[in-house]
Write a structure and sequence with these properties.
The protein has helices at residues 16-27, 33-48, 54-70, 82-101, 111-121, 131-140, 143-154, 159-166, 170-192, and strands at 2-3, 76-77. The protein is mainly alpha-helical and 194 residues long. α2 (33-48) packs across α3 (54-70), α5 packs across α7 and α8 crosses α9 (170-192). The model is unreliable at 2-9 (pLDDT under 50).
Length: 194
């Protein structure tokens, strides 16, 4: 495991315990157990929101942790919690699952996330009566864009967490999400005005 210290903020004290667990896990996979306990539910829900089949969700969640354990020595701390790395692995596992199964990704969203996203669209079309159109528009997005929307507005991840998952900087993530929202807005406007 390599710890890349952020020169502006240093190692986040809240992450120190995780870093110890990670370092211990490199030589002893039994030391991975606290990380599994801490993140299992969050990773499972992340998978479940994209794949409703309970057995598949359990299998995919297990695969995420298996891959994390196999590659724990490659983990690089970059100022974000270990969960960001797990989510990146989960995204890849889910993408592989849908490719192999030749299925379309599911979309499960909470109403509060839809309303927050609609507020960000800053438009008359982002009204409650158009929520169905917004959901349809989200489903038309490329998988990577849809995933970012779901993580930001429905899973309530911060820009920092998203940047860590995407391996980019926070400003780029803000711009990217703004562009995705603008694209969604155009899709919904076309649909509503037809």
């Amino acid at each position: 495991m390599k710890i890349t210290e952020n020169t502006q903020t240093g190692t986040n004290p809240a992450h120190l315990e995780e870093l110890v667990w990670i370092a211990d896990s490199v030589n002893n996979l039994n030391a991975f157990h606290p990380l599994y306990d801490k993140y299992y539910e969050a990773v499972y829900l992340f998978v479940y929101r994209r794949c409703y089949e309970k057995e598949d969700c359990l299998d995919l969640t297990s695969l995420v942790f298996e891959k994390a354990m196999m590659h724990i020595g490659k983990y690089k701390y970059q100022g974000y919690n270990f969960g960001s790395w797990l989510y990146a692995i989960a995204r890849n596992v889910i993408a592989d699952y849908f490719k192999k199964a030749n299925r379309d990704a599911k979309l499960w969203v909470r109403d509060d996330g839809l309303m927050e996203m609609a507020d960000n669209m800053e438009s008359d079309i982002a009204k409650e009566e158009n929520i169905g159109e917004i959901i349809k528009a989200i489903k038309k997005l490329p998988d990577s864009d849809r995933d970012l929307i779901v993580m930001k507005y429905f899973e309530k991840m911060s820009y920092e967490e998203l940047a860590a998952i995407e391996k980019t900087n926070v400003n780029h993530m803000r711009v990217k999400l703004h562009r995705i929202i603008q694209h969604l807005k155009k899709i919904v406007e076309r649909s509503v005005n037809q």
